[in-house]
Structure formats: C-alpha cells, structure tokens
Amino acid sequence: FGSVTSNMYLWVNGRYVGYSEDSKLEAEFDLTPYLKPGQKNLIAFQVFRWCDGTYLEDQDFFRYSGVGRDCYLYARNKKRIQDIRVTPDLDVAYQNGSLAVNLDLKGSGKVDLELIDAQGKQVATATANKSGLVTMNVENPKKWSAETPYLYTLRASMQGSNEVIPVKVGFRKIELKGDQILVNGKAVLFKGADRHEMDPDGGYVVSPERMLQDIQIMKQFNLNASTYLPLPG
Q1: By the number of CB atoms within 10 A of the CB, which of 19, 87, 93, 157 ranks highest?
Q2: CA of 180: how far to CAs of 173, 189, 198, 223, in Å?
Q3: Which domains does the chain have, with CATH numbers?
Q4: What are residue 53's phi and psi, to 5 degrees?
Q5: How far apart are CA 206 and CA 188, in angstroms?
Q6: What angle is formed at CA 110 by the lines to CA 107 and CA 111, rounded to 5 degrees?
Q7: What's the whole-model pTM score?
C-alpha cells in the first residue's frame, strides 16, 4: 500500500494480517501464510479517518482519508535481493566517484551489479556472494546537480533469478563548511517552497501529469529545493 490515510487493518480470506498507521509511508505485508494456492483469495482492508497518529500529522492542510497512492500485489523468489541501499560519493577533488552498495540477501547466491550511463553504456561492474557492502569505483563520472541532474542506473540481479532491481544514481558530494552548504565543492543558495501532496481535483491522489506540472512550475521560478508535506511521522 503506497499511502493510506490515516490507518488501516488488513485481512486475507477472513484472517487478520496486520495494521498500519502512517499516512505517507508504504505499508507492506507478507501474505504467503494466508493464501490458498489454486483458489480465489479474498483481500479486504478497512480504512479509518482518525487514529492516535493523526495528532502527529496535524499540519496545515486539508484533512482527507482513503487510499492516496497505488497498491501492488507481487510475488518474489525465495532466494532474492531482500533490500539494497546505494550511496554515491566523490573523492576530495570532486573528480572520481564511488558507489557503496549495501545488500541484504535472502538465501545464498551470487549477485551481479552493473552500472549503466544515460546512453545505455556499461561503465562499471561488480559481484557479491553474500550480504554486506560492495564498493564500485567509477572514473570521472558525470556529476549530478540541480542544474545538470545526470543520472546513472545501477542494475542488481541474483544469478538464477529473472528479477532485475534498477536503482537511479547521481554522483554528487554534499558538505557543510562553515556556514555554507557545498554541492560538488560549490556553494549553493537554497531557494525553495513548501509543497503539499494535494490535487485540486483528486485530493490526496496526485496524477503523474500534476507532479510534472509542479516540477515545471518550480523550475520556471528557479527553485532548487522543496519540502514535501505532510512529512512521514
């Protein structure tokens, strides 16, 4: 569940599965023990407008309730990449880059990592045989900034599985020196706005077209930062 306001209870085939409350964070449930293979399965959830967490999210915006983002039902292999965290960085000269890839694997297996540039060219590879940290070095990558938001794609796949996990990567270095924030060694003046996840027609359901329109308006007025509300509790 991408976003449910303000809380929800979930059942599968009449059996209670779980509960969640946090309007702007995903809620994920393992349905495996509750499913009946080869049969029709009934998924039911109940949404309430108010809960005790509502007071933590009591900010200045219209108070609606319901399902605001997409919901997904998917199956994964027993041997899989359970979680992946990618942290890009630049060296002290802001020239060469590195990727710190933290992997959490379910079951044993070999993981292939492949970094692809925006033109689809392979620029770096690595392999991992267990959970933990893998470091990938990239010579003179194109740098990310608000003015030139160049992105690479890291593809992670476990051998023997048809699942490929793509992660967008931008090489940048953010530092605090004195009273200035530096991005790739250059001082940045933040000019931002407060943006609520709100649509005049759809309420909490914001279409991709409306999201793109918001970004275009922010770029039109030379904004380079934004706070998204309501913040996760």
Answers
A1: 157
A2: 14, 8, 33, 18
A3: 3-69 (2.60.120.260), 80-173 (2.60.40.10), 192-229 (no CATH)
A4: -70, -15
A5: 30
A6: 100
A7: 0.85
- Maximum C-alpha span of the chain: 64
Positive or negative, the CA dihedral 99, 102, 103, 109 is positive
Structure tokens at 104: 């959490």
Radius of gyration of the chain, Cα coordinates, nearest whole angstrom: 21
Residue tagged 């599968």 (tokens)? 12
Tokens 């108010």 sit at which residue?
A: 50
Interacting residues of 168 by C-beta distance below 8 A, sequence separation 6+: 151, 152, 153, 154
